[in-house]
Amino acid sequence: MLSIVCTPIGNVTDISIRQAHALFSADIILAEDTRRAGRLLSDIAQLLDLERNEEQKLVSYYKEVEFEKIPDVLRWLTEGKRVALISDAGTPLVSDPGYLLVQQVIKRDMTFTVIPGPSSVTTALIHAGFQLKTFYFAGFLPKKNSAAIKMVKSWVEMKRLDPDMLIVFFETTHRIGETLTILESILPERRLAICRELTKTHESVVRGTPAELRGAEYRGELTIVLE
């Protein structure tokens, strides 16, 4: 049985009983970073007074190796192993590995379940404080400026069809300056919210136009909502 397990996006106390049970009862956990997954399991064990299964395997499962690991995962599932897939934080498959595996599981008519939990996307949408009727999740903007500009221009067309639509996307700290410059050139009057380190100790949210927010230093994981 395959379980797609959401995990806290920063604060371990957001773990649910169902998530913890799925993780601690799994024979194999597929994780982007096994060291980070190990620390998460240790933190959960301490928080909920649980004991780690010494026979449990943590298997490295990130984008570059996903395709080659699928045969092993399918074999484990066929053998009746309980397999849990997690990302570094939040919801797997949302800009994280897992799509190829789920497609193969569906193709073989195997059963899998999704154990819901925290997501920086929905958390940021609420933090932004903008009226939320509909939204579009854009993932990470392309690394090339020309492609990023093309994507932002496509949002203009989308907003003509649905003026109330919010755009939410991820950005890295070293690209946020360039992204704000692009937004300023195409959507200068639109407000946005930059949500940083959500649920963590140094969580912060700043709101304003691209020009007002450009020039500041942003550290940590960034989720951005465009009004």
What's a quick, concise take on this entry?
The chain is an alpha/beta fold and 227 residues long.
Topology at a glance:
Elements: E1 2-5, H1 17-25, E2 28-31, H2 34-48, E3 57-60, H3 66-78, E4 83-85, H4 99-107, E5 112-115, H5 120-128, E6 134-140, H6 145-161, E7 165-171, H7 176-186, E8 192-196, E9 204-208, H8 210-213, E10 222-226
Parallel strand pairs: 1-4, 1-5, 2-3, 2-4, 6-7
Antiparallel strand pairs: 7-10, 8-9, 8-10
Helix pairs in contact: 3-4, 6-7
Describe the sheet with the most strands: 5 strands, parallel
Q: What share of the residues lie within helices? A: 25-40%
Tell me what the CATH architecture of the largest domain is.
3-Layer(aba) Sandwich
Strand content: 15-25%
CATH topology of the largest domain: Cobalt-precorrin-4 Transmethylase, domain 1
Termini, distance in Å?
41 Å
| Poorly predicted segments | none
* CATH class descriptor name of the largest domain: Alpha Beta
Tell me the overall shape: globular
CATH homologous superfamily placement of the largest domain? Tetrapyrrole methylase, N-terminal domain
Q: Whole-number radius of gyration?
A: 19 Å
- The sequence of SSEs as H and E is EHEHEHEHEHEHEHEEHE
Tell me, rounded to a whole number, the average pLDDT.
Answer: 95
Any idea how many domains?
A: 2
What is the count of β-strands? 10
Strand order of the largest sheet: 3-2-4-1-5
Number of helices: 8
